[in-house]
Amino acid sequence: MTTSLPLGVDRSAGTPLAAQITAQLRESVTSGVLRAGERLPSTRDLAAALGVSRTVVTSAYAQLFAEGWLEGRHGSGSYVADVAPGAPADPPPPAPSGLASFSTASAGPGDGGLIELAAGVPWAEGIDPAMWRRAWRHAGARPPSPFPDLYGLPSLRAELARYLRRSRGLAVTPDQVLITRGVSNGLSAVAAALIRPGDRVGIEEPGYQGGLEVLRRAGADIVPCRVDANGVVPGELPSDLRLLYTTPAHQYPLGGRLPVARRQALIAWARAAGAVIVEDDYDGEFRYDVAPLPALFSMDPSAVVYLGTTSKILTPVFGAGWVVASPALVASLAECRRQVSERVPEPVQYALLSMLASGDLERHIRKMRLEYARRRAALMALPGLRGDSAGLHVVLELPAGRPAAGFAAEAAARGVGVTPADRYFCGEPTLNAVVLGYGATPLAQVRRAAGALRPLLPP
Amino acid sequence: MTTSLPLGVDRSAGTPLAAQITAQLRESVTSGVLRAGERLPSTRDLAAALGVSRTVVTSAYAQLFAEGWLEGRHGSGSYVADVAPGAPADPPPPAPSGLASFSTASAGPGDGGLIELAAGVPWAEGIDPAMWRRAWRHAGARPPSPFPDLYGLPSLRAELARYLRRSRGLAVTPDQVLITRGVSNGLSAVAAALIRPGDRVGIEEPGYQGGLEVLRRAGADIVPCRVDANGVVPGELPSDLRLLYTTPAHQYPLGGRLPVARRQALIAWARAAGAVIVEDDYDGEFRYDVAPLPALFSMDPSAVVYLGTTSKILTPVFGAGWVVASPALVASLAECRRQVSERVPEPVQYALLSMLASGDLERHIRKMRLEYARRRAALMALPGLRGDSAGLHVVLELPAGRPAAGFAAEAAARGVGVTPADRYFCGEPTLNAVVLGYGATPLAQVRRAAGALRPLLPP
Fold first, then answer.
1. What ipTM is given for this predicted complex?
2. 0.90 cut: is pTM over it?
């Protein structure tokens, strides 16, 4: 098949042309018009047929590759991947491994002459002082309410619903949004509402140990679930989990992005198991190649709870985040919160509202995206890097016989702080690697760090 | 005995004369110079002997009565109470009963024409908008740190140590202070550090149900402990508790203030049982008769963890508080917090720092103290009121055969919202009463409410 596809673009529509093509191709696959294995027209042919520039089509294809709808066969074009509804879960890809977590232990600024490559920490100095002052001045101008709103400020919930639609394509209404203090707080609220002591709860292995600890404290019986280079492996998930905590946009810390087929399999698993998927979208805004993938939540709002935070896009000292879930679950979360007098400080909410409404926050994110992409590129010369072009960290896999702890010590001796991947494992580590974070480290220092690490690695 | 006491005043000292006399009399009792049952000189005689006004001595005696060092026998003067070190726990006083909690269910502003007498909520409109703006402007002027300090800002910990010394007589160093988001958050941190699932934990019955729920979620096996008009009854505490959560300054909700003898017995019990006492000083700043009692923490910093909050002195939408404990426990709490990426938003801490350092917060507290005292006085005409002259609520005991739920319905029919005391009980309620809060209700409305309730009560 070639250009006989039911495609067309509408220049008067508000949506970018590439996004129009992407949406139509996705629809063609899910509706069965395009079948697994079919070859797509070349970008040149499709561009000519639609009367658009080739760049537009290339960009649309890149997005679909990124999402896993298409797969490439070297030198022979683009093919539809096996993502038909009801397709069986894909078999585990070539055994990868795993690594690093939101640990704050090594996350401070470098002390002394050490260049600390801390994972999961954004760049505080990148925050424009004028923007920060403006946000808090607005917050202070709003007199305090008599009592905290358990759901969060209605105006902020509405503004966040719009932001999530713009930035993540989430079609949500304000009553699906609960304001939290961040991912841990959101997860803790979900656990209080859904988990009973002894319930089996899946976490990614390796994964975010902070999330594990939140679930453990809620009484969960923790079940580590293997991840590979693409993320969690749906075919291996036990059927008796009550909940699965996962990071599909950018697996923490391995960096995989869950492909469409796995996403479908994951949703099918959750439905069959009666389990809830908690989707932690901690740094979904930071992708440097293609637009972020649509959130898992969009595929089935009844099976997925979505968690977001300002800790990566702004700063962890801000302390705000959100849960997106069904209105009924949002109401349960608010009730659980009432029982323990939980709250999100109102001025923090007003400050976030101000930054969202003014566009300040999105301008900041765009600025940081560029900055982080440059820093990431500075590390790319190192051999053994894993993970997508996204986020604030990268995983460096080490040669066999080069234990991570020893490597970290050698790196420290050369003035660079790195984190052995072991600490992202709940059980026995299955990956020999270190995590390099560049969120909190200025570009010049990242370059120096890369230079210092290079001689420690194979040529 | 009369004026042969080793007393004297020093007009050149910075301390008020009444406080000097109070301190010396306390010392005389603890050192054994004054013994249980001894009669004190009359205020007139002692004033003459010391060359001070009678008001000074009356005020000193009132404080010592309030603290439980003295007891009065009607018409025959003031006597030293039985508070000798090692004195046995006092027998349970004439069976009182119990009631109300920090519930937020009925804590919103009155809707429609209802005058809501919500418990535990302060007056948001009493906060000077200029003070509020100033605090947040200062907060916004401080650029965000790269990563949250797990203990809280060092400058705020130091400032709070000074505040606690001034306002509550606590001799604490900054390393004994951990910044929290409030009482629940502090209790949750303490529970995470000290409680293992299945540990037996005592709570007051009736008591703060939010505290109970925090402890329950931490896996505690909850043991309700009876309180009477004076507070918790140390002689009845089981010896196998790991922790006791208590409100000695102003029992929530009954309003009792734990007398010195019970405080001593409580400390002795904790030492013998190897238990930790968690002292919730949620509204210790609001007393309308005498100065607040010294905190339990001062008696034994190794056995007591002290919790404070801005929720009553300022507003629950602010979201800050503090734990005061040994430096070692403070370090454990910070470590527990690290494990789950807990934080207190930094701008909230800077705003509190600003209000403390400028004196704004203490000016606000003084203003509110006067305001709340007036509102409380407006309720005093009602028969059946219980509890000390303190805090933001009062308990109204109802005649037998007048169930609280029915009374609340009748009150609502007359335009007044009150809270049945049942909801402060974990088990079967043993007190027929309602709770009347006046923190969030302007004076004129409190007066109207009192007028509306009066005809519902016995003459």
1. 0.80
2. no
